[in-house]
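User: I'm curious whether this sequence folds into something compact or stays loose and floppy. Could you predict its structure so I can see for myself?
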Amino acid sequence: MGNTPCLRVRGPFALQGEVRVPGDKSISHRAAMLLSLSQGEARITGFLSSRDCLATVNALRAMGVEIDQTGGSELAVKGVGLNGLSEPGDIIDCGNSGTLVRLVLGILAGQQFTAFLTGDQSLRSRPMGRVIRPLREMGAFIVARGGDTRLPIAVRGGSLTPISFVPEIPSAQVKSCVLLAGLLSSGITTVSETRRTRDHTERMLEYLGAGIRSSDGRIEVEGRIALVAKDIAVPGDISSAAFALCTAAASLGSRLTVRGVGVNPTRTGVLRVLQRMGARVTVERQWSANNEDFADLTVSGAELQSVDIGPEEIPDVIDEIPILALTATQCAGTTTIRGASELRVKESDRLYTIEKMLTSLGADVEVRGDDLSITGPSRLRPCVVDSCGDHRIAMTAAMAAAFVDGAVDITDTDCIETSFPGFQEFLSGLAGTGSVESFCLN
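Assistant: Here's the prediction. I'll summarize afterward.
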């Protein structure tokens, strides 16, 4: 037997049916962290039991938080308060999770102990200076590898001073790191965004009783105000739903409904891009819980047109660019994605891996600097795609089989567990005339 998990997806196929996707990854991380810092006990329903989010649970347990997984997607969290964490007895392994390491650094900066963080090979190559610098300015002692920019990292917390911070790049993780440190400081910490990023942290802090205000891109959080534990329902992850929604939108004969997905306005950029392409997207119903918006979404296949995605849109679609690039191969005309430099420091250099994947599929694609252009429509061909250990590349390649007369083989697909456990079964249930099977390579 081999030891490299792979998927073989045979097409073509249309997507039909009604489905749910696993819980939102961003919200799951934040719910576990913020309930751990709250006073009282509460439950999380719809929690994403993926490798990344379970790494967050394990990190919090290592710092003394009682977290019981009462069901596959339900957690019971007994909060310890803002300053109730205890020093971990070992190095915290953040796995592949950039969200975990960047957000937990903000929490650790204000604790009265020392902690050490590491991660897998991919995470150890990703930039951390963007969060280390503001935390040092607040008074935390942090040392790191690679000129203080890479994991492993050592952090010794202490008394923090509030700052007024303007992130160098639009990043919800950087913003959230500083806000979490601000919770533990003695005053008002301000973050001013030049471009809007996802706001799950701000919404959840408000829901749990933090002293937080937000207006025109300026977010203020008052430190040392206790959080009060409340139950949190996690919506389905729109970034996971996007794989099926985008594929269905470009596949004539498809009609797909995704139930209970999160439609926070800072996360629905992918829907706005699809609508500009001419996709038929409808909201069947919409509701709210714990400061987040939920909806049932239906997409039907249509003939699509190319679009331009500018730098100002990148933060709103950063996780969906791989599947939007695949969708662009089925659009008439040239789609351009501009100013996507942040893709180069994801789980892979996604500008490179998107170009490599689409080229293997026979698409007309070009990368110039930090811009990506795709000309369609293209008849895609059977091929082998190396995921490069990137979950979003692996799932995009699997969806590409919808437009292929034959098989797409994707190597190194274990990475999908990072964000979408059960993806193979999910796709098998939708693919109709297609097929999905797993195999291993030596």
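Summary: Residues 25-233 form a domain with the UDP-n-acetylglucosamine1-carboxyvinyl-transferase; Chain fold (CATH 3.65.10.10). The chain has a mean pLDDT of 97.
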